[in-house]
Amino acid sequence: MKREPEAFLKEEVKNLYDNHLNWVIRHLEVGSKPHSIVDGKEVLMLNTNNYLGLASHPKIIQAARDALDKYGIGAGAVPTIAGTFDLTKQFQEHFAKFKGVEASLLCQTGFAVNQGVIPQLVGKGDYVISDQLNHGSIIDGVRLTKATKGVYAHNDIGELEKVLKKADSENARRILVITDGVFSMDGDMAPLDKIADACDDYGAMVFVDDCHGEGMLGNGRGIVAHFNLQGRVHVEGGSLSKGFGVFGGTVAGSKDLCEFVTNKSRSYLLSTAHPPAIVAANNAAISVVETEPEHVKNLWINTNYFKEKLDNLGFNTGNSCTPIIPLIIGDPGPAQEMADTLFREEGIYGTPIVFPMVAKELSRIRVQMNALLTREDLDMALTAIEKVGKKLKII
Ligand SMILES: *Cc1c(COP(=O)(O)O)cnc(C)c1O
Which of 106, 111, 132, 133 for a ligand 1 pocket mutation test, highest count of atoms within 8 Å of Cβ? Predict the structure, then answer.
């Protein structure tokens, strides 16, 4: 029998559609901001990672324009082969100061940081210990290592200590503990202070992936600043594509760490550097967070107002303590129906999150707050969410 090289594609795609597990990609017709036009419809967006609204900030856009005029569009090569821009050096020094650490490195994306860095930090004879609910890019990075893998129940310090003890008793050469800073599906935070204490006892390395915590916690500086743990967390991975509103990944920590990553991370070594306009915009975004504290402040005012109202309406918002607020509904069907009704009838764009991103019985709509939302926007959204929630008997 002759092989049909592509037949499986049709079959796999059909399976996804048949089981309602396919993603529908909607199209934005204006920039990412709370009042947007999506698939031809005016909607209020409650589902972006652009927490501070910086994706449309005029100073950041201007910085990109200026760099575009001076440097052109593309970077031309990976940094190690043909150099990088003076802009990148400026950004890295600025970002390290902002984070309160020795050095930082601009990497392609937050995803690429986890792919490139984790497999270099540990290998055969080592232990890597990961929170059960860590982001998929961490899970993939861990899969690339030859280290022994340990997992602890979500945010459970007692379990973490057990795994640390086990790694210690097996004479692991190095131990790496890795956690999300803010967990993107539940909006809860890692107890990073307690994790750092536990790691201290065993000489373990602490790696926090703070892609969602940056821009929201610690005056925008992230979870390490929130807990005052500068110098006690060895690797901070981050993203410039979320709270900072632009694009890219970061590593922050010691000079040795950044030198090591420059020379070892395969995603850093083998993937092209950012366009200069993006580097300049990233630098401007950090300046905006430093000089305009109102964005972080507004984000939290909106978060506290919206969450209290949702809780009072009787929605289950789980353990959320950040601008990520899940409305936990239960079965995937009602979660999808609620999101769909909100979009079609009320002009509210919130994303349903279902298996495999969360357990089937914890299907939800994930709401994300934004500094640019007005009190009027929030009240309009609350009225709509209450109406649809009651109609579908969720509250
Ligand atoms: C979003 C996210 C990433 C990926 O970051 P990008 O810069 O979008 O590639 C990695 N880790 C966590 C925890 C994230 O939330």
Answer: 111
For the structural domain made of 27-56+293-391, what CATH number should be given? 3.90.1150.10
Q: Please list the active-site residues.
A: 184, 212, 242
- Which two structure tokens, joined as six digits, stand for 81? 């082969």
Q: What is the DSSP string of 245-286?
A: SS--EEEEE-HHHHHHHHHH-HHHHHSPPPPHHHHHHHHHHH
CATH class of 58-291: alpha beta
List the structure tokens of 256: 């040795």
- Per-position DSSP letters for 300-357, written without gaps between them: HHHHHHHHHHHHHHT-B-TT--SSEEEEEEESHHHHHHHHHHHHHHH-EE-EEE-TTT
Indicate the top mutation candidate among 118, 183, 186, 211 to test ligand 1's pocket, ranked by most ligand atoms within 8 A of CB.
Answer: 211
Q: What is the CA radius of gyration of the chain?
A: 22
What tens digit of pLDDT does each residue of 307-351 get? Answer: 999 999 999 999 999 999 999 999 988 999 999 999 999 999 999
* pLDDT tens, position by position, 149-191: 999 999 999 999 999 999 999 999 999 999 999 999 999 999 9
Report the SS3 class of residue 237: strand
All CATH 3.90.1150.10 domain ranges of the chain, comma separated, are 27-56+293-391
